[in-house]
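Following up on my earlier thread - several people asked me to post the actual chain instead of describing it. Fair enough. Here it is, all 235 residues.
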Amino acid sequence: MFQIEIRFSRLILFICFLAFAIFFVDLIAYFNGMYVIPFFSKYLNPTLERNLPTLLSSFSFFVVSLLLLNVKIAGDSSPKKWKFFGYFFLYLALDDLLMIHEQVGSFLGKRLLKGIFSSYYWQGIYGPVFFVIFLALYIFVSRNLLHNKDYKAFVFLSMGYILYFISQSMDFYEGLRTNMKFFMRAFHLSKYQVIHVLRSVEETLEIVANVFVALSILPLTSIKKVAVSIKTMQH
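Reply from S.P.:
Thanks for posting it. Predicted structure:
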């Protein structure tokens, strides 16, 4: 048996590398007629659910959850709040994988928001709750990072939240079901091509946002390395 130790920060950065790799490979495949190959059209397509990009997105939420559940701050008067945020991101990891918010949001939205909310129903149902929780997390993490004078981590956190805002704004815009003529004329693309690119960018930005947030929380935890043990066959 031998053991491999990987710095947790490198694992987080590797998630970022995979996100961009999937993004660029998908665009190359999509615009070069390679979607006739199922690997690209089904398993690598960021616009679909329950494939490799979805797994990576779910894993990025899980990494943030793991870090939040392991926050160790001396003299912390309310450690339970970190557990709450940790379990919230664990829910997001499962939600992303199982499409809970789309299904529940669609079910409730058709009954509560029809004719009122013009974008995806899940944003109208979940949006206010998610906004409050994410805002509270930003305040709590920022307070501790600034107290420790860890300005680099604070910048990472802020960058993550900027990317969250951009990705969710893109999702909201897409849900409006506009004719996309501005983007079609600007980039000489068809409507379906514009939608594909928007969804790909949105999915990638969400993963990268999780990477920034994870890097900002890492200094507050006791996690430094992840170890993998591999058993070897003995003769």
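DSSP finds nine helices and two strands in the chain. That should answer part of your original question.
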